[in-house]
Amino acid sequence: MLKRFITAAALAVALVLxxxxxxxxxxxxxxPKLGFASHNTSAFAGLVFNYAFSQHLRIAPxxxxxxxxxxxxxxxxxxxxxVPFGIVSxxxxxxxxxxxxxxxxxxRHGVDITSGEDVTSHINRFGGNLGAGFDLRCNQSLRLNFExxxxxxxxxxxxxxxxxxxxxF
Length: 169
Hints:
Layout: H1 2-16, E1 28-37, E2 42-54, E3 57-69, E4 72-82, E5 85-86, E6 93-108, E7 121-139, E8 142-152, E9 158-168
Antiparallel strand pairs: 1-2, 1-9, 2-3, 3-4, 4-6, 5-6, 6-7, 7-8, 8-9
């Protein structure tokens, strides 16, 4: 119910306020992102920065963490490239495919039965990202973002579905 209300409110704001989703070279944005990680069926949170090299290419580094569930959590560092294109005539919305590099540091938590000590282990892996996203420009300085990407990492591949809000400057 709350998701429907938030979605309806965001769409209402987007339709009322004048905005341009047209990306300009040098445009930057920064904001939080929240979502779901399939590897350990948990939530993730992160911070995303975007820099547009041109109207059709932007770089999006992000850092985040997957919250502990099933005795696993992770640090995520991604460097993605987006190729956005407008989908409506008023340029308020854009779709983009994405591809990029990923670094995941997964922690497996456990307790040694005999000694009772923490036996946490860390696995660091490099991989790649593939996915797509949707931007909704609410006004000149506010953008909503919805994204789904699959991270290919040895033994820790995962689907990440998230939503974020960004301040555009």
